[in-house]
Design a protein that fits this description.
This protein has about 270 residues and is α+β, with helices and mostly antiparallel strands. The chain has helices spanning about 5-20, 45-60, 70-75, 100-105, 175-180, 195-200, 215-230, 260-269, and strands spanning about 35, 45, 65-70, 90-95, 110-115, 120-130, 135-140, 140-145, 150, 160-165, 185-190, 210, 230-235, 250-255.
Length: about 270
């Protein structure tokens, strides 16, 4: 299903959405163009909404018979998530991942798209507009960044590992436990952007990512990116591999080296 022509069409749409609808509002947002959803810190902007509305029909057009589950559409109507249980191929869309960073003028935000079929992520795309880099992962074919193969770092002990972890949404007592555990690694960042967390893990800039909120548009593309770069994304409680289905919050660990995943799991649990 995922051929070079379709990849080119999808990446072209992502670049166009960023160039025409997202970047023109970077550092230029007006107060009335910023809104909240579930809480005062759960932000959405005019760029999020317009980019998703623009991408949705075009993604369905490049793959006839497919449907779209977008973050903003699902926020407005949770029944949109039911499409993940249907027979049709599903495009998962996060039009501006890292919206708070986007609002604050930080560079760590991205456009994420994933193609899901039969409960598996078949392809994942992450575009970082400010950095102007495109990462692509196709199941069984590896991961690339601007056409060059990328790989996670290998054989890094947890004590020497760098990670991405934010305790913001983690519930006690797990929050206190994970926050203490990551102190035994070499360090963590809190970029508050899944697109950058997974991309940095896949390209070997960090070694692990700890996640808790499991909205599928936040993890499908990045999880496959890490896997195809030689890593793994699995749940901490039972070690099950991540699959993009609607689910309650649940701690998950991505590791840039699949062979080290269990070692890292033991270090944080």
């Amino acid at each position: 299903m995922m051929n070079d022509g379709l990849i080119e069409e999808v990446t072209g749409l992502m670049r166009q959405a960023a160039a025409e609808l997202i970047l023109p509002r970077y550092l230029q947002l007006e107060t009335h163009e910023i809104d909240t959803k579930t809480s005062p810190t759960d932000l959405v902007t005019i760029a999020d909404r317009e980019a998703e509305e623009w991408l949705t029909p075009r993604l369905m057009e490049v793959l006839p018979g497919s449907v779209v589950v977008g973050e903003e559409a699902a926020s407005a109507d949770p029944s949109v998530l039911d499409r993940l249980s249907g027979e049709a191929p599903v495009w998962l869309v996060d039009p501006v991942d890292g919206t708070a960073n986007f609002v604050e003028g930080k560079r760590e935000f991205g456009v994420m798209v994933a193609l899901v079929e039969g409960g598996l992520t078949r392809a994942g795309f992450i575009f970082a507009p400010v950095e102007n880099v495109m990462a692509i992962a196709v199941r069984g074919e590896g991961a690339t960044l601007d056409g060059e193969a990328i790989h996670g770092r290998k054989n890094v002990p947890f004590s020497e590992a760098f990670g991405d972890y934010s305790s913001k949404y983690v519930k006690p007592p797990l929050r206190e436990h994970l926050s203490a555990a990551v102190l035994t690694s070499a360090g963590t960042s809190q970029k508050h952007c899944s697109a950058y967390a997974y991309l940095d893990c896949a390209r070997g800039q960090i070694d692990y990512v700890l996640q808790f909120l499991m909205s599928p548009w936040d993890h499908a593309a990045g999880g496959l990116m890490v896997e195809e770069a030689g890593g793994a994304l699995r749940f901490l409680d039972d070690g099950a591999a991540y699959h993009p289905v609607p689910r309650a919050p649940r701690a998950a660990l991505a590791c840039g080296d699949a062979e080290m995943w269990q070692t890292y799991r033991e270090a944080v649990t």
